[in-house]
Amino acid sequence: MDTPSASFAQLVPGMVGMALVGSSVTVSRTLVDAPLFTSQAVRYVAATVILLLMARLAGARLLWPRGREWLWLAGIAITGLVLFNVAVVRGVGRAEPAVVAVAVACVPVVLGVVGPVLERRRPSRRVLCAAPVVMAGAVLVEGTGRTDAVGVAWAALALGCEAAFTLLAVPVLRRHSPWGVSVHAMWLAGALLAVLGATTEGPSAVRELSGSQWAAVGYLALMVTAVAFVLWYSTVRAAGAGRAGLLTGIAPLAAAVVGTVSGSGAPRPSVWLGIAVLIVGLVGGLRTRNVPGAPRLRAVWHDRGTRAAVFEDGRCAESPRRQVRHQ
């Protein structure tokens, strides 16, 4: 296989995951009047059960956290799941939804800078140039909106929590895999939200959920949580946090498409312009760079269970000085 196709294959799960996240905007409106902590607790507990079944069917090995891993995983649960949901709900109470969406649109810039640092490599110039373009496109798609100082603070918290959802997973993805990180983050968040729901909304709050709200929780648990989490973390591990961060721009694009299909009307001209800018930013930041004169990847060579990429001139990709024998 060649490098471009391999790179695109690594990005596909993240693209699908962000499309699912974007589709959740319309569904989440059903839960505006539902008990916040209780409905989210049900969502993450259900998603944990679903994901455990999926992992068993897929033969994925789940490891119990140890040492500092508990801090990283708890950080994902507290910031990326619990606090993010609180910031969004409280933020839209003090500002127009577009304000929070614009803040979250800044995530590619944060991931493009901080992600590579956590991965112990230099930020990609291509990603750093594309991230502001993706952000600008998302802003055009979502619009701006009115707010006050408190609304800005909630929006900033939503931005930090959304970035933390990816960045805090980087140190534990190698050992725990996307399956393990997703499972542990979900059950930790579910337990914390259940405690918050029981103490602030009461144990009987779950009975207040209507049939349509149960359906919304079910969709969010299965598609937007269980499936999308694994897909997203798969791309983060394979492509890096910086490059994967550009894919967050797909979420507002998917939200605009779903909104149009669901009957909210045709997008405004500014939305079409934003979609065009988003696509330009994504293509510019995600396309593979072909270096003139560089050896092309020809095949994948297996030796005693290890995987090594072999170039056309017979050199192993992991060790340029090592000559391999073609079978």
Q: How many β strands by DSSP? A: 4
The secondary-structure element order is HHHHHHHHHHHHEEEE
Estimate the global geometry from the Cα principal axes: globular
Number of helices: 12
Descriptive keywords:
two-stranded antiparallel sheet, globular, 4 strands, mainly alpha, 69% helix, disordered N terminus, 327 residues, single chain, disordered C terminus
Description of the molecule:
It contains twelve helices and four strands, in the order H-H-H-H-H-H-H-H-H-H-H-H-E-E-E-E. Residues 1-6 and 291-327 have low confidence and may be disordered. The protein is globular and about 50 Å long. A hairpin with a 2-residue loop joins strand 1 and strand 2 (306-311). It has helices at 3-28, 36-58, 69-94, 97-104, 107-118, 125-142, 149-167, 170-200, 211-239, 241-245, 250-261, 269-286; strands at 297-303, 306-311, 315-316, 319-323. A two-stranded antiparallel ribbon has the order 1-2. The chain has 327 residues and is mainly α. Helix 1 crosses helix 11, helix 3 runs antiparallel to helix 7 and helix 3 packs across helix 8 (170-200).
